[in-house]
Records
---
Amino acid sequence: MQAPVAPLTWHFPVVPEEPQQPVVPFELHVPTPAQSIAAQCGESFVHVEVKKDFFGTGQLVNPSFLSLGGCAAVGEDPETQVLIFEYELQTCGSSLKMTDNELVYMFTVLYTPEALVGTPIVRTDAAAVGIECHYSRLHNVSSNALIPSWVPFAATKVSEEVLVFSLKLMTDDWMFERPSNQYFLGQFLGVEASVTQYNHVPLRLFVDSCVATAVPDVNSAPRYSFIENHGCLVDAKLTGSTSSFMHRVQSNKLHFQLETFRFQQSNSAQVYITCALKAVVASTPISPENKACSFANGWLSADDNDQVCMCCDSTCGSNRKGRALSDSGLVSEGKATIGPIVVSI
């Protein structure tokens, strides 16, 4: 006679609540106005010198984007990285104002950036700085600081296997989720992609692709794909930035830095970032399909296997859709979003 069988008591695991984050000491670093323009007024001409480090961020702007009222620079000092403009008072779109005591010639230094080649984004905003020549008084140069910023939020994706995919904005030391939602152009977004696992074998996370858009719809235009080809962070190669994956510290997390930007031809100041994430068994070898690669005078791996990054200039791995989860050690995949990220002027 068969012994009685005990009933099953297994229950589907419940995703536990994340512990409340402690108060994080944080101070937003606001850029200071750059002292990048000097002018000298002659009897019949104006001499203007403009630093190529126009915004004081350490990044040199394209000289073709700078003009004096539409007039191009007539020279450049390569040692000091200064552009030189020298024109007659009545040229370059100048205007004349007469008062009881003086004549005032007014000029404008214009910075009009174009979208970075092959992308719909800019990393600096247009600017106009007024210059006045007072006769008979010295000139006065004034400028207004540009204050662009970002505003973010994080989203998560829960897979059927009780795996939680997430994207978070982090503090500069990568210790905490960033408590402030404001950034400035020239700063970097620190993004943490992670997968939280419950009752599962150890996993390794990868960021397969990331797209930035002006609205939540990932298929909308304008759109900027800055991670593609199974984990190739192409922003640095496309724009000359220093955006990159950080060296991996934990298998289930991946950090990357992205230099802030705006969409040039969008009336909205908002940006959304959507990433396709995937988790593989931690013991799965790094491969062209499972990698995190950055460009800095060549392709480099966040997992110390630069060889797998060589395909970033062509096509990496399989393009098959609907592949089985068992392929390439894949356990699960999902999408997560940060947004809206607001860039204000």
---
Amino acid sequence: MKHALLIALMLVAASGIVYGEPNATMTGGGDFSAAAVLWFAGTEVTAQVSGSISLTGELVVGETESAFKAKGSLSGAASGDSNTMIGSGWATFLARGTLATGEEISMRGAIDLSTDDIDLSSDTAGSGTGSLYVVLSLPDRTLRMRGSATGTAGGAFVPPDDPTTMQLDGKGSFTFTIASKDASSGEVPGEEEDSRASILSWDTQQWPDQLREQFTRVMQEESE
């Protein structure tokens, strides 16, 4: 048993990869372009969303700071009430990019937002606040971070691929602040301002089933 443990430790040291949670923060913004397929049942609206995402910002790990940029794809779901204008949505994404130093990174994330200003009759579909969870893979370590996000989206109806549905093509942007568990002392930046920030807890097993299952697939896709 001792020999097996020693061999495992030697392999980790040789690989140079550290699966730790040092003090780390990430702030930035993202832009996305997506198609939403809509279904209506009275005033209730549900949607399946898919598209592309790009992210930029600053990463601080310990005392080291570096700009980053990444691009990838996203998919998710949303629902709301056209009368009350209250709704919520979530998406997962996988984005790859680089630090300013040239090192390659990948970001596997989940975002969950709520809104109280849905307006399908205008160019702006609404704004939302919520939480963001990211697994960031660096050349020498993997970090988990979570925090708050705020965004807006707008678009226009287009001829749907499925005539039994309606389709909305749109664009949006969001800003975020996330931190590792040590850096945030277990609290989500901005959580006191938005109760939905607690939905994406550190324990992914506590997430809503559909979101957790899709995020698991994103993690598996990255590892293949």
---
Amino acid sequence: MATAASWSCEPCSQRKKKTEASKWCTDCEESMCQTCTDCHLSMKATKRHHIIDLQVAHSCHSNPLTGIQFCEKHEGHPFEYFCKDHNAICCNECMSTKLHRSCKIHTIKTCSKNVKTSQNFKDVETEIDHAIETLTSISEDRIANTTSIKGNVEDVKKSIKRFKSNILQHLDTLEVAIFQDLDRMQEEMSIKLNDEKDQAETDKEVVSVYKKQIQFISNHGSDKQAFLFMHKLKMALHNLTNQQIGKIARMRALSIEHKIPEELLSCLSLGSVVPKDNLCTEKFKLHVEDFKFYQNFHLHKKVDMTAIDKQAFITGMAVSGDKLLLCNCDWNHHMPQVLVFKKSGEYLANIEVKGAPWDIAVLPRTDQAVVVLPNTNSIQFIDTLKQVSGREIKMAGSDEKRGIAATDDKIFVGGMDRIVYILDHDGNLMSTIFSRGEKFCYLLSVSNCDLVYSDFSSIHRIKLDGSEVYSYKSPNLRNPKKIATDQLGNLYVAGKDSHNIHRITPDGTFLDIVLTEVNGIHHPRAMYFDNSSNMLFISNQSGKELLIFNCT
């Protein structure tokens, strides 16, 4: 890579003149000599541009000022606007799309004024410090645990020797064998701990780069660049924090103990060495005020749905504002309807629809929802504010449609024909995806526009090209139904015939079973996580009961 001293003046190069550059315009992203710099600052269009020494421009790792002003989606178009509704930075091309027509829009010039002294900018710097502190703690803990295992091994060996003195001398050979097992286990644990320590160090290096970049842009960048970089960095820090919470939730404090056989005379070994681990999440204080790892689920209320409809069969649910919308999918009901409740569990009203509603999805940042009607092979829009139904749209194909999900600009409908139909918010068919799994039962849209669906036996995550990211299946999860997601992206799956709720990570790894029959779970079907109120809603007893849990 060229050093700062070897850079040529770009305006001079355009005139086929070779001059050594000494300055850098962060707005034009162009190197200039002193003469061209003086001209640059004298022109009306560029006199307010931000000029720094070329040496300074190339002193920061991965110069954060380079390329930050231009839209990744629309090449060559500079960022000019900030959409508060979507928390998105936009260029003129972005603003021409339907997505932002009714949004609250501000110019970046307005938003970035004095941003480097704002609390948001300071918060990002604090987040970096928190991340470095946490990753340092993880690394130090892994090192300390590795050391403690060595002492732990010595204690176990002494225990084995004491036990050995009470049994026959011919067990000496078994002593050697168990020591080998112990040493092997120590090595495996040490490798695992070192891997976790190395990963923490790697992540720490990434965040340290963020630290240098934010300090650099604070000292040398413009307000606009600081605002743009801050926005980009907040997303990166959020993803990093999300990853670390999942890792910490699975992190274990490893140790070894010696198990002594109860029947000494019939013993054919010196026992066994087994790993011990304990969750060590509390040791690490991640700065996640807005994102919680739920550990406790307290039953707030139980609602008997048959008191409202004797044939109640709640198969789908969603939250819109302060209202809970329940799909009462009684196939033989003469008046199919969506029931409207307060989130606290009080019945408010019902909305009549054209067919038995199986599931429902709310269109983000709107007062619109859409239900899927299997028995009429259609979907229907609902105005959640006025509590009235709207247009019905017939779907392609003859198979029943069950799963439904929505994003900022798309509606996804999953069918028993293993096809996902992608519609725009007006209900127009855009494209289709063919899945390799079984028939769709329920559908959920997650980050990166991936889809997660249940197919009566397992959970699958797929991309919009139909390729599978992972599948999740467990003998303790029978007949999986509705899927919900929390703020951290963890998935919650209702096991109808296993009478439990599984929690898995965004990458499909089992975390725990959060609710079982002990908590009153029996034939759960529909489920929804309302992250704004930290409440989990579950359709229980095959849709005849509503359970409301407070999550902490």
---
Amino acid sequence: MTYLLATGWTGDGKDGLASGDGRQQWWWLAADDETGDRRWVFIPSPFDLLRKRQYCQNLVVTAKMPVRMVESPAPASSSGANPGQTSLQPCSLLSVGQTFSGTQNVSSPQKEEAWRVNVRIQGCDLNHGYVCGTMEALNVPMADTPVVTFWEGEIVDTKNYTFFTNKWKATSEVDIDHWTKFPSFSPLLSQVEVDGGKSLDLSNYQYIFMRWKEQYFVNVGADCGLTIAGFYYVCFSCVDGSINGYYYDPNSSPFQKLELKTTNEGRSGFSFSSYELQ
């Protein structure tokens, strides 16, 4: 893992690298100039960054944005993926700053209910199969304000991650039950049943499959009445940027559907809501 150098940290520290109060802040850091790769880095405290400054000589900061540190995914040998596979092709609709809007159906047998949802991509690293962002749920019962969560995602590229989750209380049967909800998964099913799809080449497939796991609440406390114990199975269309997903949590209503469409917000700049993390 390469640690990137941030400048302009909010606070009174030299070179912007140290803040007197040590609060969490969010930044967008750029990777080296040769590859143009961008890494999203979450900095627990500015003093951690000072200790990592020695790694930053060949890196350049490009802009200020929310970020999170990404640990390298599990080695392919332990995750069941195939390190020889090619990374997915970049898609402009799945890029930093892209926003999506739609609904999540949270209906139960007792009640029909849907929340309006906004999603913003805060980081995307196809080489490591990583994506992260924020999810804002509106008109949530018992919530006075929209509820914002930060999520991290695994991109199913068969290089870093396969279709088998192997965690979060999801068995291979649960995986198959959810992936088969997506029509675009049908051509892949037979091979996924054999080896989780690790022998598939998805580098030019028109759909990108992901798992999104909410990590924490951004603007409300954990006692807000909602749970983030589960995760989303996600299918993203590289053609039109639409997103469909299904939430899995053995303790929640099954197959809560997420439907999002891409928006134009944020494509011409960095105008987005910001939140201070406590």
